[in-house]
Amino acid sequence: MSGYRLSSGGLIDRSKTLSFTFDGSPLRGFAGDTLASALLANDQLLVGRSFKYHRPRGIVSTGPSEPNALVTIGSGARTDANTKATVAELYGGLTARSQNRWPSLAFDIGAVNGVLSPFLGAGFYYKTFMWPKQFWERIYEPFIRRAAGLGRAVLERDPEAYEKSWAFCDLLVVGAGPSGLMAALTAGRAGLRVIVADEDFRLGGSLLSTSETIDGAPASVFADRTVAELQSLPNVTLLSRTTVFGWYDDNVFGAVERVQKHVAEPSSKLVSERVWRIVAKRALLATGAEERPLVFGGNDRPGVMMAGAMTTFAERYGVAAGKTVALFTSGSAGYRTARTLSAKGVAIAAIVDARAESGDQAPDGVRVIRSASIVDTKGRQRLKGIVVERSGFEELIACDALGMSGGWSPVVHLACQRGAKPVWSEALKAFAAPDVGGGLRPVGAANGIYTLAGCLSDGAEKAATIAADLGFNAVSAAVPVVDAEEASSFTALWYVPGAKSKAFVDFQNDVHAKDLGLALREGFGHVEHAKRYTTNGMATDQGKLSNINAVGILAGMRGVSPAEVGTTTFRPFYTPVSLGALAGTARDEHAAPARKSPLHGWAMKNGATFVEAGLWHRSAWFPRAGEKTWRESVDREVLNVRANVGLCDVSTLGKIEVFGPDAAEFLNRLYCNPVLKLPVGKARYGLMLREDGFVFDDGTVSRFDEAHFFVTTTTAMAGPVMAHMEYCAQALWPELEVRFTSSTDQWAQMAIAGPKARAVLQQIVDGDISDGAFPFLSARKIVLKSGVAARLFRISFSGELAFELAVPAGNGEAVADQIMEAGRPHDICAYGVEALNVLRLEKGLLTHAEFDGRVTPDDAGLGRMLSMQKVDFIGKRLSTRYGLTAADRMQLVGLKAVDADKDMRAGAHLLKEGTKPSTLNDQGWVSSAGFSPVLGHAIALAFLKSGRERYGEKVIVFDKLRDQEIVAEVCDPVFVDPQNAKLKA
Amino acid sequence: MVRDYNNRHALEQKLRSAPRPAAADHLMVGHWRAMATVLARAGQAEAVRQSIASVPELSLRFSGPGEWLVVSEVEAPSGLVRRLEELCDGGAYVVDQSDGRVVFRLTGPNVRSILAKGIGLDVHPATFSLGGSANVLCGHIPVNLARTDEDTFELIVPRSYAESLFDDLMRMGRAFDLTAAFSD
Questions:
Q1: If you ran DSSP here, which 8-state letter would residue A635 be given?
Q2: Residue A272: how many CA atoms within 13 Å on its side-chain side?
Q3: Which secondary structure element, helix H or strand E, spans residue A343, and what is its range?
Q4: Minimal CA–CA distance to A173: which of A236, A231, A223, A220?
Q5: Secondary structure letter of residue A212 according to DSSP
Q6: Where, residue-wise, is CATH 3.10.20.440 in chain A?
Q7: Which of A235, A736, A746 is the best residue to mutate to test the B interface, defined by the most B CB atoms within 10 Å of its own CB?
Q8: Which residues contact A548 (CB under 8 A, 6 or more apart)?
């Protein structure tokens, strides 16, 4: 065919010429063009190669259903593969490249697959790459992976920015064609909050590509006027370049707006694409209808396209698809295209009508061949002629373009994305939208109404009904008058018999009619099986053109109605959405928020290295000059705390204030140990269980007065514990009067630990903190000498004499500075969570490394904490289950490396000496491990089968990851100061 | 409000540089604001709400059934706690959160578009009117959102999240040239 620009007409701006390149060749188009219309205007018919057989392919459609014209746009990191030329808005400087061809589009080595096609039918890979089994991963998969996929993703970092936005409305109108615009206008005038989303860069839909007139003016004028009025309404939001891709629970719609994909030089202030989550009280599906291709021999020759696409190219873009155009139709649409093209001076070779008769009017002098079909096409990389068959008589008709029309299917994807299946309509000869309730209704062509007047009035009526439903006074807008419209009809024609060459059903995945027959013969006749067996509808276009014909052909082959065959499953996304858009801003350091302690600045000043612990950035260790490894810093910090004093930031622990006359009772039921009689001014270690008797979390409970408790949780479980408490208070024991709130962020909390802790702290605390006045497990509100109101706790997670001091978060840094200053004569050091971990490990104190959800209090050596005489507590009942009290459970023990230079790692498994590593021989695992600078060798906490009876035994610590086995001695888990002499000093 | 001891704001680092002249859309960070959680005792919620609402300089932010964040621009933290305890007269428990929360005040013609980029709540005046407040997520960050004027919203965020929320808000406002500064 020979595409060319018509001398006039079209909704393009002929005064604005845009230069672009295709496969390196400089070409020109106009503002308002798509890449496809500009290519066609330049007679660039061959635009791609098909996926499997590398057949030459041309443009088929003008919309998102395009199976062939997939190109790569852009360069470098800004490369977008598999972009449909039919929806790519042309801009000056656009560079496009064809895909799936080598060395060039016109000469493609891969086309040899076409010659081999007798061997490459559906299921070829499944049947061929089955044996030998050892070839699966090393040979077959890499081979198939290389063959698979169109286009090439770039591996560079995506330089574009993306974002998401929420939107709320009374009415979402999906599609801005005649029905959508009329609905939006009606609802907008009535005062509803309306959002109109359309994937096109120009709103109007089919109004932009019809020769019909409304109220005496071209339909596009009506579209522009309506859009202008909608723009003037403050309650209406118009989103062009926005594809609604999914329909989700609660009438939430996902949409992607291409904010600046259409500009050569994007603004750095704007994102490239924006994902909208639109919460709509009501929605109208004004998505129109899709014209069906016909399945006949040679139907994939470049130059064969949808009849409706030809109309759109001519009316909207002022481009003729060819100089001599033939049409093959089973309905009115072919005639309409013939009239449009003829009126613009394009020669019509013939109209081949599959029907015996119809009332459709061909243009004057155009030959109509009825009861006929096309069985083959001629030409190689462009169409030269068609072979028409009629009652056994074949005739070659020369033409350079062929428009095909097999009728229409309403575009109902969104309505089917939440489980409802489309419903076959015998009247429409199509699958119609299912009734999914009032939240989402189809309107206009999506509702099976194919006349312009019908679409306009359906839009107005549906919107008025919604307005009334939502309590708005709908002003009945006068529906504009459509002038002289022809009736429209078609018959379904799924397959054109007598094909002399391949008759393609799915252009993009190269599935032809015979492949479907093979699927049926081999037992894959179910529509979902046939899809997977043949890959029909599995390409990037998701079968927008091919699925309906595949269903029709399967129905025909099986001798049943398409209703019985049904459709495959519709799922988001309607069209492909870039991963960047779905990620939005949540990438790199913005993937998750960072929580920073009020002592973050203090830690920075002291040279901390930070570690991410959940969302928190915690100070891990504080390297000093000359220290080359983290271990050197940590060992120094540990030894200094044991010998002198250290300060550690523990602000990240969860903190909860608990109030109420029943607070004591409430906490008594939450913890497995007794809390009820905790004296005012005292703190206590507390252990919470899950209902199933396993440890949930541990922390401290302090009592400031009769009705005010203060609870701490581990950093990681702060949220879950709070949620658990809410559940218990609201659902389990609503009769208890208790109120609580988190104060985690209010307090900067620091541990001051070491033999000299009191000497340091006494300098800044107003009041006596001697052991007599402030013994172990004291907890009081105090005042610092500086006047700051604070809380002081005598608790220790290191085994040393230790205090935890809490001050209002904003004061934290100043107070920490002051303590460091006061501690200087005592050789105070800052220590981080790594040293904290070694200190607690040396003392056999536990964290969630031990409480991993499989551990009971008894396993952890805390069995004595269970207060079984309490009436009830969470976990009590199930704690007595046989399995939880069995003597051979894994029990907490300590491990000492026998060779001082060997280390252990958490996750290693334990074996008896002389046994081979196996699940059967497994004796337990290491939960925490580290180097004890005090003892000078590696130590670990581990869970060992009946471990408490096995102190002194040697076990093998088997570390499969590092492929290392060492011998360790089982011991008491408290390695340092088992009498707690230092703690209570 | 004056504080008598060296108090470091969570955003001191972020907002240290000299502020640009405020654009139409502007983010003000409450330098020091007293704030407290008020937890009404059983059956006292309405009485507590009314007695606090009767004081014009106290702003009530709903944060749960019988639970509010009360914000004051005039009181010091300890003063606010005392004031609230007096007002509630044993009907509620009061927890100082002045150091635990940071207040962001977002104002300008595009404020709703900016908020929509992080917050899944319909803040159209018809559904979220003046005085309205709610616990929401801004991205992944828990926020108490309140409408304090036609085009002004306050976001109260736990201190530890303040830097991340600040970064997020500035990014959400980039298309509108959002500026930011301490409010006093």
A1: H
A2: 20
A3: helix A332-343
A4: A236
A5: -
A6: 4-124
A7: A746
A8: A292, A409, A430, A431
Name the CATH code of domain A293-406+488-502 (choices 3.20.20.10, 3.40.50.10810, 3.50.50.60, 3.40.1160.10). 3.50.50.60
- Residue A271: its chain B contacts at CB < 8 A? 175
Which of B94, B103, B117, B160 to mutate to test binding with chain A, by most A CBs within 10 Å of its CB? B160
d(C-alpha A355, C-alpha A333), whole Å:
13
Question: In the structure, what pLDDT confidence band is assigned to residue A52 with cuts at 50, 70 and 90?
Answer: confident
Q: Which fold has domain A4-124?
A: Ubiquitin-like (UB roll) (3.10.20)
* Cα A292 from Cα A547, distance rounded (Å): 10
Tokens of B131: 């005085």
Residues of B in contact with A269 (CB under 8 A): 174-175, 177
- Would you call A719 an interface residue with chain B, using a CB distance cutoff of 8 Å? no
Q: pLDDT (tens digit, 9 = 90+) per residue, A319-374?
A: 999 999 999 999 999 999 999 999 999 999 999 999 999 999 999 999 999 999 99
Find the closest chain A residue to B93 by CA distance.
A659
- Look at strands A924-932 and A909-912 and give their pairing: antiparallel
What is the average per-residue pLDDT within A915-937? 96
CATH of A162-289+410-471, one of 3.40.50.300, 3.50.50.60, 3.90.76.10, 3.30.70.970: 3.50.50.60
- Positive or negative, the CA dihedral A359, A363, A366, A372 is negative
3-state secondary structure (DSSP) of residue A631: helix
DSSP chain B: ---SS----TTTTTT-SPPPPP-SSEEEE-SS-EEEEEEEPTT-HHHHHHHHHTSTTEEEEEEETTEEEEEESSS-HHHHHHHHHHHHTTSEEEEE-TTTEEEEEEESTTHHHHHHTTB-S---TTTS-TT-EEEEEETTEEEEEEEEETTEEEEEEEGGGHHHHHHHHHHHTGGGT-EEEE--
Higher pLDDT, A114 or A245: A245
ipTM: 0.96
Number of H helices, E strands in chain A: 24, 54
Cα A21 to chain centroid, rounded = 34
- Which residue in A660, A787, A813 is closest to B8 by CB distance? A813
Beta-bridge partner residues of A347 = A324
The sign of the dihedral angle between the CA atoms of A815, A817, A818, A819 is positive
Pairing state between β A802-808 and A504-506: unpaired
Pairing relationship of beta strands A368-369 and A347-353 according to DSSP bridges: parallel
Euclidean distance between CA atoms A366 and A369, whole angstroms: 10
Cis peptide before A103 (omega within 30 of 0): yes
